[in-house]
Write a structure and sequence with these properties.
Blueprint (H helix, E strand, L loop, with lengths): L3 E6 L3 E8 L5 E9 L7 H17 L6 E4 L5 E9 L8 E5 L5 E2 L2 E9 L12 E5 L5 H13 L4 E6 L4 H5 L8 E2 L4 H5 L3 E6 L12 H8 L6 H10 L5 E6 L22 E5 H8 L10 E10 L6 H8 L3 E3 L3 H9 L10 E5 L3 E5 L4 E5 L2 H12 L3 H7 L5 E3 L4 E4 L4 E3 L12 E5 L2 E6 L4 H27 L5 E5 L8 H9 L4 E4 L11 H12 L1
Parallel strand pairs: 1-4, 4-16, 8-9, 9-10, 10-11, 17-25, 25-26
Antiparallel strand pairs: 1-2, 2-3, 5-15, 6-13, 7-11, 8-12, 12-13, 14-15, 17-18, 18-19, 20-21, 20-23, 21-22, 23-24
Organism: Mycolicibacterium chitae (Mycobacterium chitae)
Protein name: Diol dehydratase reactivation protein
InterPro entries: ATPase_NBD (IPR043129), DDR_dom (IPR030994), DDR_swiveling (IPR040916), DDRA_swiveling_dom_sf (IPR028975)
């Protein structure tokens, strides 16, 4: 019986299968390891040979022949680009959130230091502004004195975290907001303050027509009011100022920079992900884009002779790695022969139809970059966060998953991370953000997978010209349990999308390795 080794050296991992039997296709062993030295390198070939020998020895086998498709790596560049924020002209959002707020109202007036309230005219609406040295007792006393004197104090702003303490001591129910940079507010000419309590959202500051009237804006400033109103949706408090010294409105920013390198590119705008996920304004970053650009293939790669020398057996060279992936993937039970095979890797999505193959940049690595940019976290944290569902820390030892189920932890987390989202990492639960609820994170994560991976699958299908409506996902990226759903939703309900199970037993990772043996043993 001839023992075959199918060896697939990928950009991130190397997979091998050992096969035998009458036709040489009976799976005897399989294994994978991180690729050393980079795909196409001599070091990677030597590492693959070592893995194959170890597996053969562990199973009491002797490798007679190997199958290999020498393929150079695809050079991929990832880039995150900060976009120019939308201009709001003379309107400035001083804050859209605060540690605490009080009141349930809106007030518009000129900003005045709290110590000078007794100097303003009685018929002039003013917003009392207290810098950090003014404590809540003195602020409340001075505002009450001004109100008793008939002055129109319509709102209170303070730098200290004391909004409720001030509000509880006022003689009128005014909107009060803390954690505000008072020096910046005092440099403006007019201020609008709105606070809503309970289940209410902002009503006035999210109305562009109200903003135009309240600030006396000109006809050419209506777009500024629209942009401000849009940015304040989902807020429970906000402070908007009129800055007479602000620069004139600039033309809208371009759609985005062109990729800096030749070749295909996949550009994903964070604003598009947030819009598709209906994310709360301010909960995720939206003023950036991430892109993956694919350049020319490097080469030539280490060939079959190099593998033969490392392994000590004859190596059959298979011309097309894509053809091997398709042959191996289509051994999945229940799959029709016309199905399109999609190999999802770290850098590229490889769409293999019956007569065409399309390689597109933008896969797992691009999804990581988008997650890191949107949540403003490290790439290492984003790599784990993107993969699967998260839990919310209710207490140091109680968490709630995305289905609303609560679980007690065997080991408590640091109490500082109560309220944070946690994801699974090799070291345990990893806190990665406190800006989103579990439901919001789920919605954003799935939208990102649709626009990053699902978009590329759709593009590959269109370019292949295949009329098939069956899509089979294989490769390391198919480990993501949510990927089938994300691709299916992006393609539409007429497509059947599933995950490979090579030869009914190997799962989704070994399509190329098993396909190599199938092609070589059958030739």
């Amino acid at each position: 019986m001839t023992i075959w080794a199918g060896i697939d050296i990928g950009n991130a991992t190397t997979e091998i299968v050992l096969c035998g039997g009458p036709a040489g296709r009976e799976v005897l062993a399989s294994a994978r390891t991180p690729t050393r030295g980079g795909k196409g390198s001599l070091r990677a070939v030597q590492g693959a040979a070592q893995l194959a020998r170890r597996q053969a020895e562990a199973h009491g086998l002797v490798i007679d022949r190997a199958a290999f498709a020498p393929t150079p790596p695809v050079r991929l560049a990832l880039e995150s680009v900060q976009l120019q924020t939308q201009s709001t002209g003379r309107l400035v959002i001083a804050t859209r959130s605060a540690a605490t707020t009080a009141g349930d109202a809106v007030g518009v007036g000129a900003p005045v230091p709290v110590q000078r309230l007794d100097e303003v005219a009685a018929d002039r609406p003013v917003v009392a502004c207290a810098t950090r040295e003014w404590g809540y007792l003195e602020v409340a006393r001075r505002v009450n004195a001004a109100l008793d004197a008939g002055r129109q104090v319509v709102a209170v702003l303070t730098e200290n975290d004391e909004a409720v303490l001030i509000s509880n001591r006022l003689g009128a129910r005014l909107p009060v907001v803390d954690d505000v940079e008072i020096a910046e507010v005092l440099a403006t000419s007019r201020v609008a303050v709105e606070v809503r309590q309970g289940m209410s959202a902002l009503q006035r500051l999210t109305d562009p027509f109200w903003l135009v009237d309240a600030f006396g804006l000109g006809d050419d400033e209506h777009d500024d009011a629209r942009v401000v109103a849009d940015q304040l949706y989902d807020s429970a408090c906000a402070v908007v100022c009129l800055d007479e010294a602000a620069p004139a409105r600039e033309d809208p920013a371009d759609a985005g920079p062109e990729p800096g390198a030749p070749g295909p590119a996949h550009v994903v705008r964070l604003a598009d992900i947030a819009a598709q996920a209906n994310s709360r304004r301010g909960s995720v970053a939206v003023d950036a884009l991430v892109m993956a650009t694919m350049g020319d293939e490097e080469g030539p790669p280490a060939d079959a002779e190099a593998l033969s020398a490392a392994l000590g057996v004859p190596v059959a060279e298979v011309e097309s790695e894509a053809a091997a992936a398709r042959v191996g993937a289509l051994t999945t039970p229940g799959v029709t022969p016309d199905a399109v095979v999609v190999d999802v890797g770290g850098g590229t999505v490889d769409v293999v139809a019956e007569v065409a193959r399309t390689v597109l940049p933008g896969a797992g690595q691009l999804l990581t970059a988008a997650t890191a940019a949107a949540l403003e976290i490290s790439n290492s944290a984003a790599e784990y966060a993107k993969r699967a569902e998260a839990v919310t820390a209710i207490t140091a030892q109680l968490v709630e998953d995305e289905h609303g189920r609560r679980h007690f932890l065997d080991q408590p987390i640091d109490g500082r991370y109560t309220g944070w989202l946690l994801t699974s990492a090799p070291s345990g639960l990893l806190p990665f953000t406190s800006r989103l609820s579990g439901a919001e994170w789920r919605s954003w994560r799935l939208a990102a997978k649709r626009l990053v991976i699902g978009h590329n699958v759709m593009t590959g299908l269109q370019q292949s010209g295949s009329g098939a409506e069956a899509v089979l996902l294989v490769g390391g990226g198919a480990s993501d349990d949510e990927l089938v759903r994300a691709v299916s939703e992006q393609l539409g309900h007429t497509f059947s999308v599933g995950r490979g199970n090579v030869n009914g037993q190997l799962g989704h990772r070994y399509a190329v390795a098993y396909g190599l043996v199938t092609l070589a043993a059958g030739s």
